Task: inverse folding
């Protein structure tokens, strides 16, 4: 995973090893010597909207860019290789990718979703599929008995995110998948792996059927692209979501595909650096008198730490903390930060902070937010690539006067 050792590493056993060839695949997968154009080391940005046919209805693999595009194909093959999957399919956003996954369902189908995940996902599941005759029920997927009770003959999909955004709760992918597939071998388990990427977690190897990404975050890594993807080993699933990609037309641009392909080359280096920095920030906050709780799976004190080590190779820069009631205001903290920026999203080089209750999870019912511990003083931090010492100094001064 890397040479660095944090206090969390010293106190605990090592995480799962990263796939040995991951860094090599991040650089080379999808663009091999046999398909290089004019021997270029960097893949071309293929912007042609359409292609000449040899004869009517016969093409050389490309006929219209919405259907196929070389820049997109290179990225999709790279993403599949990194997840140990067979197929990668890219979309114009993470929520467009979620829509593609939901297109596998039909009227009368039933979905079980985690009650703890990104607010935009919750909003889509709450408001966009009921008119199609698809029922979604939310449950705490740490409660296996409650989860089992919701399973029905018509349950066709389980959707979750782990670690969850923003609470950083960790869910047992092997057990959740095993329960679903024992109930019905055709029930699909879909996992949002945006928080860790395939560098730190590979859900397909843990029994899941589809991996979902917002490539906007760590995969791209530079805060300048909106994109999503699905990864699967199933030919049938690939055919269906590829059809959706084509007929709905929610495809990313060739230039955006080029940017994500380029960003992925440095993914291993960025993820290691962000884990080291975020763990040090978490350790600082853990001992701060104004902080009630710190949420970071690399900390031995985190309730999901042992499980995380069983299914992950490490953790990213995403973390959270809660200011003690009466010790300060979350909103004042955000007004006081100077280096860290008050903004949504995560995964870029810049460190960001936000209060989910007022931003990413505003659409989640207040009672659900409070049940999950997402109070007004709950702060989500996305640690970037700045000096760790500078980040801690900024947090310290912001807490002092909040």
Result:
């Amino acid at each position: 995973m890397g040479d660095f050792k944090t206090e969390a590493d010293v106190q605990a056993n090592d995480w799962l090893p990263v796939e040995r060839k991951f860094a090599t695949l991040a650089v080379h997968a999808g663009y091999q010597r046999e398909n290089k154009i004019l021997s270029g080391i960097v893949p071309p940005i293929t912007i042609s909207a359409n292609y000449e046919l040899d004869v009517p209805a016969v093409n050389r693999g490309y006929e219209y860019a919405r259907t196929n595009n070389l820049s997109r194909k290179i990225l999709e093959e790279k993403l599949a290789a990194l997840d140990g999957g067979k197929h990668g399919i890219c979309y114009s956003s993470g929520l467009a990718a979620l829509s593609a996954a939901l297109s596998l369902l039909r009227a009368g189908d039933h979905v079980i979703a985690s009650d703890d995940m990104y607010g935009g996902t919750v909003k889509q599941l709450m408001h966009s599929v009921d008119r199609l005759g698809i029922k979604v029920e939310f449950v705490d997927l740490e409660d296996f008995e409650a989860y089992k009770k919701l399973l029905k003959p018509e349950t066709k999909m389980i959707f979750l995110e782990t670690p969850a955004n923003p609470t950083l709760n960790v869910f047992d992918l092997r057990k959740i998948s095993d329960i679903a597939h024992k109930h019905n071998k055709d029930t699909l388990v879909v996992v949002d792996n945006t928080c860790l990427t395939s560098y730190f977690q590979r859900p397909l190897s843990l029994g899941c059927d589809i991996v979902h990404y917002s490539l906007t975050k760590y995969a791209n890594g530079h805060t300048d692209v909106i994109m999503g993807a699905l990864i699967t080993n199933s030919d049938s699933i690939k055919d269906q979501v590829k059809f959706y990609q084509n007929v709905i037309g929610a495809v990313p641009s060739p230039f955006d595909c080029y940017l994500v392909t380029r960003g992925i080359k440095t993914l291993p280096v960025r993820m290691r650096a962000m884990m080291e920095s975020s763990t040090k920030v978490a350790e600082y906050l853990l001992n701060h008198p104004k902080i009630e709780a710190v949420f970071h799976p690399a900390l031995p004190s985190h309730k999901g730490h042992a499980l995380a080590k069983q299914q992950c190779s490490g953790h990213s820069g995403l973390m959270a903390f809660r200011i003690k009631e009466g010790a300060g205001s979350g909103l004042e903290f955000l007004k006081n930060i100077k280096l860290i920026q008050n903004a949504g999203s995560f995964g870029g080089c810049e460190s960001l902070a936000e209060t989910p209750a007022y931003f990413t999870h505003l659409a989640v019912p207040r009672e659900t937010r409070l049940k999950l511990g997402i109070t007004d003083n709950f702060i989500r931090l996305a640690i970037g690539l700045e000096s760790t010492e500078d980040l801690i100094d900024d947090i310290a001064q912001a807490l002092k006067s909040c």
